[in-house]
Amino acid sequence: MTRSDDHDDASPAPPLSPDGSSADLADLQASLSDLGGLVAGTLGLEQLLSQVAGFAAHAIPGADGAGVTLLQMDRPDNRVQAMAASTGFVSEIDQIQYVALNEGPCITAARERRTVRSGSLGGDPLWPHFGPRVGRLGVHSVLSLPLLLPDQVVGAINVYAHAKDVFDDHATDMGERFAAPAAVAVHNAQILAQAQALTQQLQHALTSRPIIDQAIGILLSRTGGTTEEAFARLRTISQSEHTKLAAVAQHVVDEAIHRARARHTNP
């Protein structure tokens, strides 16, 4: 059985089902507390996703494991930016979904901005290639929850169980209550990771600029050309040799130093 819930925005999840047990609610509250305690700056992006996956598996009744995936939905191949799992069999399923097939509940949930679930993956027509392969692994139930912000889809949380028909309305309610704040936490970590990467790139550029300027000066002394021509020559070498521009510049400088020392040693 496949059940789909349409959500056009990141609106709050519906009230808890009347049959929700106090133990399930306590698990959810504990997971939300743990989620709120995550400090993105102390963890790498994939480490944080692993933590979120573990919290999701604890928060959603019946889960045997969970995974969190960031997808670039603006690309036709739904490119995976990062993913993490709470247990090994979920990692294996994720490889099937994203690498081998590019088909599965996470992609559906993220692309269509809706919760999807199935209690019999092996025979589910929604994923004709993914479902049977996962069913043969002994995993039959899935609940996929999109990580939604008002203006974008960040990715999705996938929760799996080995038994059939595990995730009912109550489990879905719990999952949606967890997914809303998880989307914010994951997105904040994503932004921080991007900012850190940009900072590293800028630091590398600042470190590389002096050596590039030195290499340009050396080429100018040899050829008498312009600065633009010297830089173009460095860039051409970089592209043809598939080597970073800074490495090409360093080679030019090192070669000039070697020649100067040779002339000084052997006048």
Quick structural gist:
Helix content is 55%, strand content 16%. The chain is α+β, with helices and mostly antiparallel strands and 267 residues long. A hairpin with a 6-residue loop joins strand 2 and strand 3 (79-85).
By DSSP, the count of extended strands is: 6
Please report the first level of CATH classification, the CATH class of the largest domain: Alpha Beta
Architecture per CATH nomenclature, i.e. the level-2 architecture of the largest domain: 2-Layer Sandwich
Mean pLDDT over the full residue set: 84
Structural class: alpha+beta
Shape: elongated
Set out the fold topology:
Elements: E1 2-6, H1 22-36, H2 45-59, E2 65-72, E3 79-85, H3 88-101, H4 105-112, E4 114-118, H5 130-135, E5 141-149, E6 152-161, H6 169-223, H7 227-240, H8 245-265
Antiparallel strand pairs: 1-4, 2-3, 2-6, 4-5, 5-6
Helix pairs in contact: 1-2, 1-6, 2-6, 6-7, 6-8, 7-8
Short descriptors:
single chain, alpha+beta, about 270 residues, about 15% strand, 6-stranded antiparallel sheet, Beta-Lactamase, about 55% helix, 2 domains, elongated, Arc Repressor Mutant, subunit A
What do these coordinates show?
α1 packs parallel to α6 (169-223) and α2 runs antiparallel to α6 (169-223). A hairpin with a 6-residue loop joins β2 and β3. The protein has helices at residues 22-36, 45-59, 88-101, 105-112, 130-135, 169-223, 227-240, 245-265; strands at residues 2-6, 65-72, 79-85, 114-118, 141-149, 152-161. It has a 6-stranded antiparallel beta sheet. The chain folds into 2 domains: 2-195, Beta-Lactamase (2-Layer Sandwich); 200-265, Arc Repressor Mutant, subunit A (Orthogonal Bundle), CATH 1.10.10.10. It has 267 residues and is an alpha+beta fold. It contains 8 helices and 6 strands, in the order βααββααβαββααα. Helix content is 55%, strand content 16%.
